[in-house]
């Protein structure tokens, strides 16, 4: 087992970007870079755990020095999860009916279920109420995908009638209707596996090897003490240690339990998908838990199928069923294969479905009910901290062993004296009982040093700060799906952002229109257009859309739904006089080509009556224009487009320069005999896209988000380059980039600073890597172009964050170091491929995530500095005292209290510091940034030397310094001296906790009131210290101190503040100290390999 990790102490930054003092390193010289490369022999040297292999994850766990494995590895990835999931999936597929029956029996026995949705119940349905179909028949038909059963019921139309649902309008939008359906067919929830109880956390905290040894030692000491000294005095030594251990276990368990509840709440939020359903003819957004049998659900590319159901209609609808079948094959859905399974994803096309099964009546529900959510995932920082903890632990174990040997040697050689000056061991005189008792006490001290020295809580501090950060980030509109992304965001050097909805408001309106061969005076006034032209535009908009127009029965304002672009165009056409419902009833779509981000357009073939077929296209203006051979003028006459093409191009450019999104609407007729007759051939038919007639070009305004310019400026000043990657026209992208501050001036807007996706993709791989560095704006990009850009930037050493909302963005989101999906406009596929969901789609929220990422790293460094200072001081004082006098001034109970201050309370206080603006005034944290930077080394050495010096003076000259030599009771004088050492040591830690807050700033108090938890923990620690010293007496091996000694203790602690200020004036070398630690290891390894 490798335990010579260089990580943390000996690991350094490869990027050399980070020159800020809080993170604490300065730029390294180029000559040192060879020292900073990845070390394949170091199990803890993991750059990125996002796509790390199981072997590398298993390797670092085996290499770590761990005292409590169940606690240390609680939040790491379950390496057998995939295998377990696959076994459960196969079992459910094979025995779904039996498993469902067993689950229903269990639920019926319990009478209630801890359902996973808010205030929802998974109680099985008892009767089908007023519906004409039996629940078991529905479940059996869908599970067995029995098409003949479906046909016997009258097809999807017959099932809908029996379920009292309308295939176009859906069910009624009525609470009673929904409740009745839940009672009859169940709710779309499943029994959630109960999380660990508080008692389980208590049990896990108890598993610490050193604490178990201390309890055994305490029991032994208790038995011997009572036997030799009687119950009144004899229980104190053993009882005090036992109580201190139990206190440590209790505080640890409470802290861990609170963390688990935070993660559980975040997991609940992640699962609560919002989706659209048709109810009462209106498109409404509901939670996935509120879907009921009979609901009509529109399906679009990227959606998750929320329940079992039957296809109503679809065009090119393809479903990825791998989550349920285990096969990665995409399945096309049509009337021959109409069944849809819950939990699957829409890979392509559009359609609508009728829900026939929900919750535990689906295979997905049974699977979710039988597996527990794995919240575990190691983060790069967590792995590195395990390496650091292992290194420190080895040092601590060595020190403890040295102390143990020194104390035993001194004891058995007769040089150890008790507090009265009497020799403790005299050969042939001291009884066996006394020898065992004294040896147990010596052994207890050594084990307690291990407890203090091995920083078991150090890796868990990452989990604590991440849990805190994730909860706070929710308020900043960011939902973290992967823990590692939270900290990796602090290292981000570039953000590749979408334009629409992220940099802009996604509130679109048509503000300019070109139709009839000229620009319209008012964009939505039809008075200058021929009725024939208006009719064709209306038909094209009404049929070639995934949106909807709803007219309320009470005569209120119309409700328009769909994507922001669809809503803008539908609203514009409605004002032109479009009769949406009438048009859709008078003509039928026979084939559709859904909008495609590669082709930048979508089309439909519409059958009018029985003889006439029109093909309508809508998409990127310049692309659709290139397919047009004629246009319709204001008189309704078709004209050749050649003479006007340049006019339309200039019109598109002019609108694009005004930051308008340009969309063209065109159509053509198709001879009926050229349209495939068979459905199978029709599904494979490519819609003709040549010889189109241009009907209109619209310019859609999407204003920049307020505050986005400031957010871009903050990123730039923080060393994070913002790049815009958009599917829009390059001129539109340039105009928005100038407005947002991504481009500073027109002079910058030259290739390759701004580039088209097509140009970039045609470059060689080497050329792409060179050009990628210079790109600021990429227009007319496809999702694959975004992926190529991310790959090129990462090869250049950038840490890349990328935003995405579409299904085709999934590869880029997965490839990037941090994938950011959009909570409002993002598809479920995009969200599942991402690491963080930006809930309000706002770029300013992305910048807040960067702040939180940097805060995580900075907080961990604060905690490391604080903990190592305590470690060094406690170990040095005990080792020196043990070697010289055969006794230690800091007793077992006192060290356990110090451990509690240092580990649990210290982590709570320092790991929950809120982010400050100061964090954004520095460059990104390098991937291999040393955890202990030169600034931290300086700070902790200054404080450690001071504390060690003061404690050693008190230990060896305390009786003189404190004026205790005249005390007639020598034993009492020694107790006062030792209590003073303990008190001064704790005071130093309390005051030094303030210093740890600001490793590089003179004013350590700035912002302290913004963290009430820090103030509360410091206050509670101080009060408890007073109680321990004043009241616990023999129990804590203390005696009450006079007010003068209390003032002296506080004064000793107080000195650490001005000392920290003086220390910060000491310059530090540019080369990280870690390089000097690492060189001997490198040379040793090289000599072994030679």
Describe this structure in words.
The chain has about 1100 residues and is α/β, with parallel strands linked by helices. The protein has 37 helices and 26 strands. Strands 10, 11, 14, 15, 16, 17, 18, 19 and 20 form a nine-stranded mixed beta sheet that branches. It has an eight-stranded mixed beta sheet with strand order 8-26-25-24-9-21-23-22, sandwiched between helices. Helix 28 links the parallel strand 24 and strand 25. Helix 3 packs across helix 12, helix 10 packs parallel to helix 31 and helix 31 packs parallel to helix 33. The longest helix has about 45 residues. The chain starts with about 55 loop residues before the first helix and ends with a helix.
The Rg value, from CA coordinates, equals: 35 Å
The total beta strand count reads 26
Helix content: 40-55%
Ends distance: 22 Å
What proportion strand? 5-15%
Stretches where pLDDT is under 50 for at least 5 consecutive residues are 1-36, 111-127
Task: Count helical runs.
Answer: 37
| Major sheet | 9 strands, mixed
The structure class reads alpha/beta
Mean pLDDT score, rounded? Answer: 82
Transmembrane segments: 201-226, 238-257, 388-412, 442-468, 945-964, 1013-1033, 1045-1066
EC number: 7.2.2.10
Membrane topology: Multi-pass membrane protein
InterPro entries: ATPase_P-typ_cation-transptr_C, ATPase_P-typ_cation-transptr_N, ATPase_P-typ_cyto_dom_N, ATPase_P-typ_P_site, ATPase_P-typ_TM_dom_sf, ATPase_P-typ_transduc_dom_A_sf, ATPase_P-type_domA, Ca_ATPase_N_dom
């Amino acid at each position: 087992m490798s335990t010579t990790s260089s990580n943390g102490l000996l690991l350094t930054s490869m990027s050399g970007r980070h020159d800020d003092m809080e993170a604490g390193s300065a730029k390294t010289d180029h000559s040192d870079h060879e020292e900073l490369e990845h070390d394949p022999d170091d199990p803890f040297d993991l750059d990125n755990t996002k796509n790390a292999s199981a072997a590398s994850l298993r390797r670092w766990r085996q290499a770590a020095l761990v005292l409590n494995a169940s606690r240390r590895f609680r939040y790491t990835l379950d390496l057998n999860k995939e295998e377990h999931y696959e076994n459960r999936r196969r079992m459910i597929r094979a025995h779904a009916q039996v498993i469902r029956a067993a689950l229903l029996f269990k639920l019926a026995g319990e009478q209630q279920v801890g359902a996973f949705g808010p205030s929802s119940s998974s109680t099985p349905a008892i009767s089908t109420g007023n519906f004409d179909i039996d629940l078991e028949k529905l479940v059996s038909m869908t599970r067995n995908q029995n098409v003949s059963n479906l046909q016997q019921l009258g097809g999807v139309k017959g099932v809908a009638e029996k379920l009292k649902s309308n295939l176009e309008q859906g069910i009624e939008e009525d609470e009673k209707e929904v409740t009745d359906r839940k009672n009859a067919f169940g709710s779309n929830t499943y029994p959630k596996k109960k999380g660990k109880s508080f008692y389980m956390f208590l049990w896990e905290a108890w598993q610490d090897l050193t604490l178990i040894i201390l309890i055994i030692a305490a029991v032994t000491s208790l038995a011997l003490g009572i036997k030799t000294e009687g119950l009144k005095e004899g229980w104190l030594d053993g009882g005090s240690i036992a109580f201190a251990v139990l206190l440590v276990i209790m505080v640890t368990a409470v802290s861990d339990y609170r963390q688990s509840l935070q993660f559980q709440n975040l997991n609940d939020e992640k699962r609560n998908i919002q989706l659209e359903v048709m109810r009462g003819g209106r498109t409404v957004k509901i939670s996935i838990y509120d879907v009921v049998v009979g609901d009509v659900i529109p399906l679009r590319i990227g959606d998750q199928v929320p329940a079992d159901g039957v296809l109503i209609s679809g065009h090119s609808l393809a479903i990825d069923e791998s989550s349920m079948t285990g096969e990665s094959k995409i399945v096309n859905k049509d009337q021959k294969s109409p069944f849809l399974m819950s939990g699957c994803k829409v890979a392509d096309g559009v359609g609508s479905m009728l829900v026939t099964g929900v919750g535990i009546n689906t295979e997905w529900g049974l699977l979710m009910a039988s597996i527990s959510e794995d919240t575990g995932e190691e983060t790069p920082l967590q792995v590195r901290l395990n390496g650091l903890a292992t290194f420190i632990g080895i040092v601590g174990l060595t020190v403890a062993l040295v102390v143990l040997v020194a104390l035993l040697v001194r004891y058995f050689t007769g040089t150890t004296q008790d507090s009265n000056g009497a020799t403790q061991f005299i050969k042939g005189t001291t009884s066996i009982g006394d020898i065992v008792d004294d040896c147990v006490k010596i052994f207890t001290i050594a084990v307690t040093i291990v407890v203090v020295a091995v920083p078991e809580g150090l890796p868990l501090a990452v989990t604590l700060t991440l849990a805190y950060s994730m909860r706070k980030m929710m308020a900043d509109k960011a939902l973290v799906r992967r823990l590692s992304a939270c900290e990796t965001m602090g290292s981000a050097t570039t953000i590749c952002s979408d334009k629409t909805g992220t940099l802009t408001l996604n509130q679109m309106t048509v503000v300019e229109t070109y139709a009839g061969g000229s620009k319209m005076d008012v964009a939505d006034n039809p008075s200058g257009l021929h009725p024939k032209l208006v009719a064709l535009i209306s038909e094209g908009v009404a049929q070639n859309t995934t949106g909807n127009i709803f007219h309320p029965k009470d005569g209120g304002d119309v409700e328009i739904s769909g994507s922001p672009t669809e809503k803008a165009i539908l609203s514009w056409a409605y004002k032109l006089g479009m009769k949406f419902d009438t048009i859709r009833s008078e003509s039928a779509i026979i084939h559709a080509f859904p909008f495609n981000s590669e082709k930048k357009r979508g089309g439909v073939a519409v059958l009018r009556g029985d003889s006439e077929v029109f093909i309508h296209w809508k998409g990127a203006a310049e692309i659709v224009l290139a397919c047009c051979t004629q246009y319709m003028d204001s008189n309704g006459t078709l004209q050749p487009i050649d003479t006007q093409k340049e006019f339309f191009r200039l019109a598109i450019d002019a609108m694009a320069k005004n930051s308008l999104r340009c969309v063209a609407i065109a159509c053509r007729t198709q001879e009926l005999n050229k349209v495939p007759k068979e459905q199978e051939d029709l599904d494979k038919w490519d819609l003709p896209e040549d010889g189109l007639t241009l009907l209109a070009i619209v310019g859609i305004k999407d204003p920049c988000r307020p505050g986005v310019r400031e957010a871009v400026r903050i990123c730039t000043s923080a060393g994070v380059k913002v790049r815009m990657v958009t599917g829009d026209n390059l001129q539109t992208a340039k105009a928005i980039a100038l407005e947002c501050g991504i481009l500073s001036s027109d002079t910058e807007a030259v290739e390759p600073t701004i580039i088209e996706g097509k140009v970039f993709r045609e470059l060689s791989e080497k050329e792409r890597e060179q050009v990628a560095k210079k790109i600021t704006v990429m227009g007319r990009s496809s999702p694959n172009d975004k992926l190529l850009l991310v790959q090129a930037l990462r090869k250049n050493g950038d840490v890349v964050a990328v935003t995405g909302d579409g299904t085709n963005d999934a590869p880029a989101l997965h490839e990037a170091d941090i994938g950011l999906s959009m909570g409002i406009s993002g598809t479920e596929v995009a969200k599942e491929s991402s690491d963080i969901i930006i809930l309000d789609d706002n770029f300013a929220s992305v910048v807040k995530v960067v702040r939180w990422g940097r805060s995580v790293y900075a907080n961990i460094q604060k905690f490391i500095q604080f903990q190592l200072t305590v470690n060094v001081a406690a170990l040095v004082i005990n080792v020196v005292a043990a070697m010289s006098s055969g006794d230690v001034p800091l007793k077992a109970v006192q060290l356990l209290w110090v451990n509690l201050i240092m580990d649990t309370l210290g982590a709570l206080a320092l790991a929950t510091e809120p982010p400050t603006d100061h964090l954004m005034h520095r460059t990104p944290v390098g991937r291999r940034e040393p955890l202990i930077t030169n600034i931290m080394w300086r700070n902790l050495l200054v404080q450690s030397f001071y504390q060690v010096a003061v404690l050693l003076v008190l230990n060896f000259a305390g009786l003189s310094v404190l004026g205790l030599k005249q005390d007639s009771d020598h034993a009492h004088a020694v107790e006062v001296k030792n209590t003073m050492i303990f008190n001064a040591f704790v005071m130093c830690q309390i005051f030094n906790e303030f210093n740890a807050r600001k490793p590089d700033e003179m004013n350590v108090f700035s912002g302290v009131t913004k963290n009430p938890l820090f103030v509360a923990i410091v206050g509670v620690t101080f009060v408890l210290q007073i109680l321990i010293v004043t009241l616990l007496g023999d129990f804590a091996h203390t005696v009450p101190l006079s007010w003068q000694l209390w003032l002296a203790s506080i004064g000793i602690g107080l000195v650490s503040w001005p000392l920290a200020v003086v220390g910060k004036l000491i310059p530090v070398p540019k080369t990280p100290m870690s390089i000097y630690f690492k060189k001997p290891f490198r040379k040793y390894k090289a000599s072994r390999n030679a």
